């Protein structure tokens, strides 16, 4: 009888060992079915608190309900401070924007030595680049000019920013655009677009920004023409710019439909954002095809908020 009593115990022990082996194998398979994904994250501290120390273990990344493994979390400083910053001005702006030019030039001049600055103007759904990326900030500031107060024959700020992102040189630096526009799409109008809260091309620009890891900050300034005086058009333009910024992890700045007295506070906020960014790498679960996948960031550090793109580009599973 005692010999038969030992058998169930042996079987139970074997079952436990087998379950442990299968669990380890499952974890190995899960780990092998992930791919590294990188993105830029801005850290905000609420109120007047000092920036606390945030470690890799404090960062939580979720893909659906699954928490993903964070493999790198480093501040964008020192040898990791590289930044490509492009200042993009809409040529459809009213010439009253000239009162802001000195502030814009000062913003460019005061960039860190590790920042490469480019300057261009949006017109005809493309970008006239006046200065390619350079670390000569004085040179970049000098090319800033008055807008010509004309959108051209096919004026869309969203098609223009898409054009810029598609022409962006490949580089491991952070990618940031400061886009100054009224957000009105003068290229595609008509009954088919009435009643839309977001301009369709803004959604496309948002997808491209998230795919390329480009953070877009938008500043509203009044444009020219009859559309600027139309509440629907002006409101839709602002909503579309705000969505583009939010989706890409940036900020959107506006003061109703009026021209701000000064854009310097906006530029100071953007400068503060650039100085409080981290480079994040995590292991994402790929799908059968490469594409954008929604992710969510969180932390349990009190008084801290993260801002990042809503989605990241994840390569296809091998």
List the helices and strands and how they pair.
Elements: H1 2-32, E1 35-45, E2 59-63, E3 66-68, E4 70-75, E5 83-90, H2 101-109, E6 115-123, E7 126-134, H3 137-142, H4 157-167, E8 174-181, H5 200-212, E9 214-220, H6 231-248, E10 252-253, H7 264-274, E11 277-284, E12 291-294, E13 296-299, E14 304-307, E15 311-314
Parallel strand pairs: 5-6, 5-8, 8-9, 9-10
Antiparallel strand pairs: 1-11, 1-14, 2-3, 2-13, 4-11, 6-7, 12-15
Could you walk me through the main structural features you see in this protein, from its secondary elements to its overall organization?
- By secondary structure, this protein is α/β, with parallel strands linked by helices.
- The protein folds into two domains: 84 residues, no CATH class; 194 residues, Rossmann fold (3-Layer(aba) Sandwich).
- It is 31% helix and 29% strand.
- The chain contains seven helices and 15 strands.
- It has a six-stranded mixed β-sheet.
- Helix 4 packs parallel to helix 5.
- It is globular, with a radius of gyration of 24 Å.
- It starts with a helix and ends with a strand.
Keywords:
318 residues, alpha/beta, Rossmann fold, six-stranded mixed β-sheet, four-stranded antiparallel β-sheet, 7 helices, 15 strands, 29% strand
What is the number of helical segments per DSSP (H or I, 4+ residues)?
7
- What is the name of the CATH class of the largest domain? Alpha Beta
Percent strand equals 25-35%
Tell me which oligomeric state these chains represent.
Answer: single chain
Cα distance, first to last residue?
A: 55 Å
The percent of residues in helical segments reads 25-40%
Query: What is the CATH topology of the largest domain?
Result: Rossmann fold
How are the strands of the largest sheet arranged?
A: 7-6-5-8-9-10
- Helix-strand pattern: HEEEEEHEEHHEHEHEHEEEEE
Mean pLDDT: 88
Biggest sheet statistics:
6 strands, mixed
Question: What structural class do the secondary elements suggest?
Answer: alpha/beta
Q: What's the β-strand tally?
A: 15
Low-confidence stretches: 13-31
Structural domains: how many: 2
CATH architecture of the largest domain: 3-Layer(aba) Sandwich
**Cα shape:** globular
Kindly report the name of the CATH homologous superfamily of the largest domain: von Willebrand factor, type A domain
Tell me the Rg in angstroms.
24 Å
């Amino acid at each position: 009888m005692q010999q038969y009593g030992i058998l169930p115990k042996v079987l139970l022990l074997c079952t436990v060992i087998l379950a442990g082996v299968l669990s380890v194998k499952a974890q190995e398979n899960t780990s092998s079915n992930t791919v590294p994904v990188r993105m830029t994250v801005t850290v905000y501290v609420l109120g007047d608190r000092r920036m606390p120390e945030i470690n890799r273990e404090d960062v939580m990344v979720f893909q659906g309900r699954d928490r993903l493994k964070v493999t790198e979390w480093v501040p964008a400083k020192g040898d990791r401070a590289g930044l490509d910053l492009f200042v993009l001005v809409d040529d459809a702006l009213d010439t009253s924007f000239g009162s802001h030019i000195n502030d814009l030039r000062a913003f460019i001049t005061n960039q860190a030595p590790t920042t490469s600055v480019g300057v261009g103007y949006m017109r005809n759904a493309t970008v006239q680049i006046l200065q390619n990326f350079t670390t000569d900030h004085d040179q970049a500031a000098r090319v800033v000019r008055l807008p010509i107060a004309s959108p051209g024959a096919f004026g869309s700020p969203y098609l223009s920013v898409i054009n810029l992102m598609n022409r962006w040189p490949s580089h491991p630096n952070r990618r940031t655009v400061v886009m100054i526009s009224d957000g009105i799409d003068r290229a595609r109008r008509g009954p088919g677009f009435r009643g839309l809260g977001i301009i369709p091309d803004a959604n496309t620009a948002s997808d491209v920004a998230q795919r390329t890891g480009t953070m877009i900050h938008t500043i509203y300034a009044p444009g020219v023409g009859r559309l600027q005086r139309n509440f629907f058009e002006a409101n839709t333009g602002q909503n579309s710019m705000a969505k583009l910024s939010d989706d890409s992890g940036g900020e959107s700045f506006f003061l109703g439909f009026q021209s701000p007295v000064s854009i310097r506070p906006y530029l100071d906020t953007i400068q503060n954002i650039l100085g409080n960014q981290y480079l994040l790498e995590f292991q994402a679960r790929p799908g059968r095809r490469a594409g954008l996948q929604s992710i969510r960031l969180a932390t349990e550090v009190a008084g801290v908020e993260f801002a990042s793109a809503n989605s990241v580009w994840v390569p296809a599973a091998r």
